[in-house]
Amino acid sequence: MSRRSSGIAMCVGLWLYCSLPGLPGPGCAVVECETNRDCGNGEKCQHGVCQTDDGGSSPTLSYPAGDCLAAAPCQSDIDCVPLGGYRCNIALSPPECEKLYCGAEHSFCSTSEACEPPMHCFEDGCTHCDKCGNLCKVDFATDPLHCGGCNQPVGATQPCVDGQPACPADRMACGNICVDLSRSSSETGPNDSVRLTAIDDADRRRQA
Description:
By secondary structure, the chain is an alpha+beta fold. It has helices at residues 3-18, 201-207; strands at residues 43-46, 49-52, 69-73, 86-89, 96-99, 120-122, 125-127, 160-161, 164-165, 171-174, 177-180, 187-188, 194-195, 198-199.
């Protein structure tokens, strides 16, 4: 049997393993949706899991509301001290003195003091940093801790590519497990069943 055929056999065996009652266990993909219709309001089906749309491109930023600005140009916070309760927002062009904690979501900012609490200043814009817990922005396509959705980490040596865990060149992807094709595919386990040589993150830690 060729290496590729052996690898395909392993994938089939893994699929059967993940289909057993009481599973899936570690390394078995959980599919809870096929389309957006299978998810709740405000959620999208992303790689078989319903997720809120925390990723995406950066929003369009706007000027703070007029009552937040003092119509006073500045170069640093020192220029705004006489106004009391203002800071120099150098993200504006030209920079202006802005009232503390006044900026709405997606308004230009240079420090978090310019934003309404509990927002933070992120990439020059007031942002609710509540993505996947307390993050300001998440890229589900490449983030190794949130690959394809919130709290979906890849293995210790796996990159996240297009929202899916990827495998090193010497291993074959079976679901979200990397199978080592250089090892035997017919090792007999305690129950005289075929033991897959799938190496997940826990195995790597034990071998380290």
